[in-house]
Amino acid sequence: MAPTMQARHGRPRTTLLASLLTSVASVTALVAGALAWPGADRADAAPAAFAHPGVTVSQGQLDLAKAKIDAGAQPWKSAFDQMKASKYADLNRTPKPRAIVECGSYSDPNYGCTDEREDAIAAYTDALAWYFTRDERYAKKSIALMDAWSATLQDHTNSNAPLQTGWAGSSWPKAAEIIKYTYTGGWPNEGRFRTMLRDVYLPEVINGSNSNGNWELTMTEAAVGISVFLEDKASYDKAMATFRTRTPAYVYLASDGALPKTVPSQHLDTKEKIVKYWQGQSTFVTGLTQETCRDFAHTGYGIASISHIAETSRIQGQDLYGTDVGERLRQALGFQSRYELGETPPSWLCGGTVKRGLGPVTEVGYNALHTRLGTAMTNTQKLTEQQRPAGSNNLFVAWETLTHAENPA
Fold first, then answer.
1. What does pTM read for this prediction?
2. Domain containing 283: what range?
3. Which band of pLDDT confidence, cut at 50, 70 and 90, is reported for residue 205?
4. Both 222 and 285 in a single domain?
5. Which of 23, 26, 344, 373 sits most deeply, having the most CB atoms within 10 A of its CB?
6. Cβ-contact 221, 305 below 8 angstroms
């Protein structure tokens, strides 16, 4: 047996044994670290039974918002009026499906990219309008939009295909959840829509992309939402595992150490590589994100997806807001809100210049952390209230003052 044999190349048996013990200790430490990771002890992230509607907005939240609208209370009434007056709630909207949606970098070329995203947001908008008005025309319009795309779409191509699939794939299941579980008028082509999500969208987003954080977070949001609608526990678990790795690699906390956490598959194994990936930022402070020094718009996409996934997870029975995920979300919201409100950045932050434009992305996280948990969030509160009613970013975020403002349900 190897331990009792003379070590090769002249190494004493005692030295070999010590080396083996050191290796075992290292592996044990790595395993212990993995088990200490937030949620790593939850192999059963998927619930025993999925809650519906259960993607970003719950039945209780829909009911509370409806009661507020019916009572004419603010900010819900103004948020509802804003949504109904938008192009996305137009009952005369004509869907524009394509068999192949081709999206290059920054959607150039744009063959169906804007049409797909906006039809998906419109389907969600109509589903909300149905729920709050009980006007069947909105439910039927939402179904018509989903049916048009499920009868046509076959693939996404070109360099932005993963991100495009994530954007549209984040909105479709939110619409489908509301229609399937609150509208009793029938949806004959629901099965075809499910097939589209399973065969066209899920394979594109479930394995991630190893690109900028907002890409993978949005793709993960789509994978989580689609998994809920499909009641696919294996895909849900896989997407949530990606989320628990990707979020710490997107938002820095001082407790992470001198350098941010990384995604192992990206091989960011030197400070130089990490700094380059973090847009040239070499000073790391709590709340900084991987894309803060790129611009706040892309940072907002990442923050939005973190909050959406955390909210879906809460609805499905696993509340992450009191964990490392919630702390990173709180700090990211506060840090970006501070400078979005106009504070001059110090010279060590992005060379003293930030590109503002965070977008309507604070409402879900602020509601969860402040309204529900009672956490003080001065800058985030100021920005959130200043932006109300929050509209749509025309990509995958829509109407979150309406669905989540002061809504602990």
1. 0.90
2. 58-85+248-409
3. very high
4. no
5. 373
6. yes
